[in-house]
Queue: 2 jobs
Job 1
Amino acid sequence: MNEKHDYRIFSQLLIDLPAMNNANSSAPKVLVIFGTRPEAIKLFPVVRALSAQPALRTVTCVTAQHRQMLDQVLDIAEIRPDHDLDLMRADQSLDELTTRLLQGIGKTLDAVQPQRIIVQGDTATAMCGALAAYYRQIPVSHVEAGLRSYNIYHPWPEEVNRKIIGTIADQHFAPTETSAEALRSENIPENQISITGNTVIDALLVTAEKVGKDIALNPELTALLGRFADRKIIGVTSHRRENFGDGLNQISAALRNIAARDDVALIFPIHLNPNVRAVMNNALGGLDNVAMIEPLDYPNFVGLLGACHFMLTDSGGVQEEAPALGKPVLVMRNTTERPEGVEAGTAKLVGTDPDLIETEACRLLDEQDYYDSMARAHNPFGDGKSSERIADIVAASLTR
Ligand code: UD1
Ligand code: UDP
């Protein structure tokens, strides 16, 4: 892993978290359940906003579906979970993971007895959190509701996870009008839908403001940015389960072809999923201008987003963050549940066909007008105040 940083300095600068559980012991309890890196990034501002609500008690439960990648965010956000189920196993299958999650979260719900739970997004943790709460008739709030690709195998299993959560939840925090409209078309009552923006923009803005000023990038990333200063840097991430096998092989072939150019460098913080690592190490190991590094903590990843020429990714969160920083994104998927970036022209779907990925990457590298048309900072996903809106709605529903 990267050199351990002094996270106390980061967190003082970054988060300034109000005291947790800042209400009296008879106040209603809201349990925030999360387990992976993106959920933690998108929920730390929500936990912060909830903790500032005097009429609530905020309790946190991490499933640790991810371990190291979750802990990177917990450290920086200075969240010490009240419950840590420590569920991750190496190379876990979906059915094993789901079983452990359902049982572990169920026991936690029985112990905590919250008046409401909050889940985010579309992971196995979020789906099992909603289901375990439903089995106990505890109401569910869904952060980042209404994203739909309308293809249950892309992304897989996330499209079905979020539909299950959508069926159970009675508070749907839709990031955009498009996601709200998807919920309406599924007959979710209007009074259960709130367009709040996506909390990832809250996390991004508070972090980006500090990076490079109050927070220095880590020595490894700093050295790489120096070493590649005369090249165009392409930031890369890839981890989708539906791409395992042919898809990842094709992506790795495309990256190898792009790296054959002498004017580019690829910085690729590799997801800890062993299925991703094996393929990428085989295809890209030993190339001087491809830096495969350990997952970056959030401020350093935001630093990479700021420094790169563009991003090549299959990540959901990166599709939301890059446009906010004016970075073009080539999305290595056939569909997206986040059409806003594509519609605005800052993101483009390139699938996993190696020729198309390479062609589109070369257009961004070679055609300045084309690059400029995609490199416009805009924020279709939020204004940085989503978490406060969510906390206000949750508090109002529990205290009226
Ligand atoms: C999960 C989510 C996916 C989300 C992604 C974010 C599901 C089914 N998938 O996919 O929606 O986009 O997280 O990254 O919920 N591992 C580690 N350490 C870590 C994290 C992962 O070693 O900190 C390895 C383990 O071997 C683990 C494997 O990665 O078994 C897969 O983790 P898992 O959470 O099941 O799936 P992801 O592919 O990470
Ligand atoms: N991210 C990070 N370090 C990395 C790669 C990504 O902090 O090395 C952040 C990124 O900024 C985004 C989130 O992790 O907020 C995306 O997570 P991931 O791609 O694992 O999941 P997805 O968004 O696809 O569910």
Job 2
Amino acid sequence: MSVTIGVVGSINLDLVASGAPLPQAGETVTGAQFAQHPGGKGANQALAARRLGAAVHMVGCVGDDALAETAMTLLRRDGVDVSNVMSELGTSTGVALIAVSPDGENQITVASGANTRVGPSDVAGLPNCDVILSQLEVPVTAVEAATRRAAETGALMAINLAPASGVSPQLLKDADLLIVNEIEAAFYGDALHERGGLVALTLGGDGAALFKMGQEIARVPAFEVDVVDTTGAGDTFCGALAVALAEGQPPEQALRFASAAAALAVTRPGAQPSLPNRAQVDALLGAS
Ligand code: RIB
């Protein structure tokens, strides 16, 4: 039986310029190719979990503009339950302006739009889940409500602390799992580890590690792949780790599963178009 994941998070339309060097402040660069894809950390993580076999329920908000349907296309197509995604009159759908360099690094600016309208009451629509997963592209009050809901219903609460921003020490303590990259780990510092829950740290080309109360309990190296676009790799890792832990995979196996999914995501352009399915992740795990 498949596991159930609830995601409380952002939904964006990604407008991507790739193939030109990343601009410095005040600089204009030319020669990029344009593409648009559905994105947003919440939606990416929801779709990642769905493609890996979970039943997924998404709580979010889009605007009443033409961008909303495009932003929701892949969530709908792949069977994420979007009955708790609101459409807010008079607001614009979230948009991410993304520049991707020839070696796959990116810069992202988000115009949050309707994502700022996700509130605590929206979380009430979530059914019981094995894991509730959230990020910081929606108001922290919604993340706090998701955390309370997880505690009430016995779900594991996972928070991807991205993008790094101020949250209460209590929220960090209440989460069962915090997921950070190196920049976010430096931002939050010791507060990540002064609690009983797990911390997953992604290290790019150096793999990933899992900590409990400051002690490393698992570490995996990165899979060697050709990097095309790192956008959405962290989201893939989060969605996959949520699925693996919900399935009861032990820590090192879960970390390896999430790292394999993220490795596949960087080999293709775009966030949501690059998310792998279960068979692809199993094949990479089997081959290594
Ligand atoms: O993590 C990648 C995502 O960050 C993009 O899809 C973009 O929408 C921003 O939210």
